[in-house]
Design a protein that fits this description.
Structural class: alpha/beta
Largest sheet: 8 strands, mixed
Strand content: 15-25%
Radius of gyration: 31 Å
Length: 763
């Protein structure tokens, strides 16, 4: 398999309407992939059709449409469909402002609705005793009053989390006393009283406290009675959708679950001020939307690009597409099970659009458990329909967000058994979307799975990496091998049994092969990291600049190298900065990732660790520090050798130098060896080190050396036999008035390499 390099993007989509439920994908990835396709708009070809069969990521579809493509999207979830429509065809900002003003001006008895709803969140400032709005109240699961409130006083500036007061608790109880009526109204907008699925809707609505449910039902009832233009009504519905999400109990406090998957109330959670969240929605929508041509199937969109949405399932569209639209490529974010979002989507659809909108999507109310076998079965059905409507050889670029072993197994097995051939997999970390390229093909003839296949693939991958890897990475390497051997699933097996057999095969393959080393405190094969028994590097010059010529060929073909991935990344980053002063991070990624394709993609954490060690940042630009320019470092290492000779002389040792290693001897016997580095290429330094070897590094490399040990347990274990000494310590030793052989040992142990601070542990 010819793995493609990971495509870097920018600005992960971690904000925006309903972002906690939507795939957190980097922007710029799909447009970059499309720009290199022979059918692409970048080659002057216009009017080509793309198909997104999942409809799971509005941002991805919008980006493809803005790149000059016509994108056909299937979406049976009414909420993601509404999101896509609003992103693509947003009302003007003035309409959002006017819509909220119109809503707030509606009378509730003798007062304006805005004032009435705001008063529900009144509390008293602890410092100045003024009555103010709380931004949120904090609750413990199962209790009937909040235990704390969060506010920012506009009068005295006091802010933060404060214990709730009696006034807060009494107000919560008064609102709860009328909860039955409002809960009944909320229920009736979703499903009829006689419907057999009513119990499921009632269970879902239990994840709303009385106060936010009262606010929402009051607002939604006014929505029906307001006389608004279609644009203004769409704007108001978009704001109310954000309020629907803000009002549920899935907001953990503190936020240990920022991306909920299950409809489960945390032990401690935040009750947002729904009116404040409506006001915040004004900027959230205006910052997230930009207009592109948008129509519902079967209306036409221009050849210059746009979005055509089909409100239904792919299987219902398949024959029509095959007859009328030649699909050039398939794109999409592969959906992972999310019971929370899918169930809430059914509720919100009823509240906003009425019972009819819920009817085709009611299955989301019924289902409480989505396991990986269910996921594989559902994905397989989609891939089957896709393969039936597409010509052989049509590419599919799929993004797998929040990848984990079971999810990847589910997706790759579903696609393979439906006849999609795996062309490439690129993986950075578990925090980044996996990038997969498939092509339509004939269904393969299944073969028997064999642990030897896995062992060979995993060993080859770990050897090419030159350092331990997470289970996610080796699992993916093994899945690729099983896919190439047509051994992911036997036809007589259901998906649940096939997935279990695959997992069992991985467990036995790893545990039964003595070449593999498990760096973990637990028995579960999915914990910790995995390596091979002997990870060695090649002996080359230690400075990244001088090593670049020798390592450049290896870094473009890391599978042929015994170097560690971290050392090769360090070499490549520094070499790029030598040739390209004032580089921005994205330019560096675009140069780096083709050198390390597929499963060898360096993490952002590693790249930043190297940059922080060697370079300084000015705005968005990175430039090598003056002291880390190659000529300056060469001069500095010469000075360190001179220092070591002087210190050795004071200790009555004879010094000799062989290239980058200085040796102290006493009566012809070797006492110490000093391997002087200008880098943090520790694996290289250890290549020929013995117990007498001391590794000497610049102080600026200390954090990078510590970071490498954090991400590589084998390196950390090997370094326990050696001391790491910084240049600055050796300089200070010459100033020590009394220096003996004994105090020298104490001194070099007095300045250990500090732990890496502020670095993300993204391997």
């Amino acid at each position: 398999m010819e793995h493609q390099p990971y495509i870097p993007g920018f600005k992960p989509a971690d904000s925006g309407p309903l972002s906690r439920f939507l795939p957190a994908l980097e922007e710029g990835v799909i447009s970059a992939w499309l720009s290199h396709q022979p059918f692409g708009a970048a080659q002057g070809v216009t009017g080509n059709w793309l198909l997104d069969p999942f409809g799971f990521s509005p941002r991805l579809v919008l980006e493809a449409a803005r790149s000059g493509y016509r994108v056909l999207v299937t979406a049976n979830n009414p909420i993601t469909r509404f999101l896509l429509e609003t992103f693509a065809n947003p009302p003007p900002e003035s309409e959002f402002i006017a819509a909220l003003a119109d809503l707030g001006a509606v009378k509730k008895g003798e007062e304006r609705l805005a004032g009435h709803l705001q008063s529900l969140y009144f509390t008293t400032c602890e410092k100045c005793n003024q009555q103010i709005q709380a931004q949120a109240f904090l609750w413990r699961k199962g209790e009937d009053t909040p235990y704390a409130r969060i506010y920012e006083c506009p009068h005295c500036g006091d802010s933060g989390e404060r214990t709730s007061i009696e006034e807060d608790r009494e107000r919560a109880k008064r609102i709860a006393a009328t909860d039955g009526l409002h809960r009944s109204r909320a229920f009736e907008r979703v499903i009829s009283l006689k419907d057999e699925d009513r119990n499921y809707a009632e269970e879902a609505i239990q994840h709303y406290l009385p106060r936010p449910l009262y606010v929402l039902t009051t607002i939604i009832n006014r929505l029906d009675s307001l006389t608004l233009s279609s644009e203004r009504k769409r704007a108001l519905m978009a704001l109310i959708l954000l309020a629907c999400d803000a009002g549920n109990t899935l907001w953990a406090h503190p936020s240990e679950r920022p991306r909920p998957k299950q409809l489960s109330t945390p032990n401690q959670f935040r009750e947002h001020n729904v009116w404040i969240m409506l006001e915040r929605g004004l900027s959230l929508w205006s910052e997230s939307s930009s207009k592109v041509p948008f129509e519902a199937w079967p209306k036409k969109i221009p050849e210059s690009g746009g979005i055509c949405i089909y409100e239904g399932r792919l299987k219902d569209l398949a024959q029509e597409v095959k007859k009328e639209i030649p699909i050039a490529a398939v794109i999409g974010s592969v959906p992972r099970p999310n019971q929370a979002f899918w169930t809430l989507s059914a509720l919100w659809a009823g509240w906003l659009f009425g019972k009819d909108a819920v009817e085709p999507y009611k299955v989301a109310l019924r289902r409480r458990r989505y396991d990986w076998a269910w996921n594989a079965t559902a994905l397989h059905a989609i891939f089957e329909h896709l393969n039936g409507l597409l010509a052989d050889g049509v590419p599919m670029f799929g993004l797998i967000p929040e990848p984990e072993p079971a999810f990847i197994t589910s997706a790759l097995t579903a696609a393979h058994t439906a006849g999609f051939k795996l062309e490439s997999v690129a993986l950075r970390t578990e925090h980044d979307a996996m990038q997969v390229i498939w092509k339509t093909a004939q269904k393969p003839k299944p073969e028997k799975a064999d642990a030897v296949i896995l062992q060979k693939a995993i060993h080859e991958y770990l050897s090419s990496r030159g350092e331990p890897a997470s289970y996610l990475h080796i699992h993916t390497a093994g899945l690729i091998a099983l896919e190439e051997a047509n051994a992911l699933k036997q036809p007589e097996l259901e998906f649940d049994e096939a997935l279990r057999k695959t997992q069992t095969l991985f467990s036995s393959a790893l545990k039964d092969d003595e070449r593999f080393v498990h760096y973990s405190t637990g028995e579960n094969v999915e914990t910790g990291m995995w390596g091979v028994g002997s990870e060695t590097g090649l002996d080359t010059s230690e400075t990244p600049q001088k090593a670049a010529g020798q390592a450049s060929a290896r870094s473009t073909r890391p599978a042929d190298s015994n170097e560690s991935l971290s050392d090769l990344t360090e070499i490549s980053v520094v070499t790029y900065l030598q040739k390209n002063p004032n580089a921005i991070f994205l330019e560096l990624e675009e140069d780096l990732y083709p050198r390390f394709p597929g499963l060898l993609t360096p993490s952002k954490g590693l790249i930043y660790a190297v940059l922080n060690s060697y370079a300084e940042k000015n705005g968005a630009n990175w430039k090598l520090r003056d002291e880390d320019v190659a000529s300056a470092r060469r001069e500095e290492t010469k000075n360190i050798f001179t220092l070591l000779e002087k210190i050795g002389k004071r200790l009555n040792y004879q010094s000799s130098r062989d290239d980058k290693v200085l040796t102290w001897k006493d009566n012809g016997q070797t006492v110490k060896k000093f391997n002087v580095l200008a880098s943090a290429l520790l694996n290289r330094a250890l290549e020929h080190a013995d117990e007498q070897t001391v590794i000497v590094i610049p102080g600026g490399r200390a954090a990078l050396a510590a970071y490498k040990q954090e991400r590589d347990p084998s390196l950390k274990a090997r370094l326990k036999k050696h001391k790491l000494v910084k240049y600055r310590l050796l300089r200070s030793l010459l100033e020590v008035p009394i220096l003996t052989r004994e105090t020298f040992e104490e001194q070099i142990a007095s300045d250990p390499v500090e732990e890496s601070k502020g670095q993300m542990m993204m391997f």
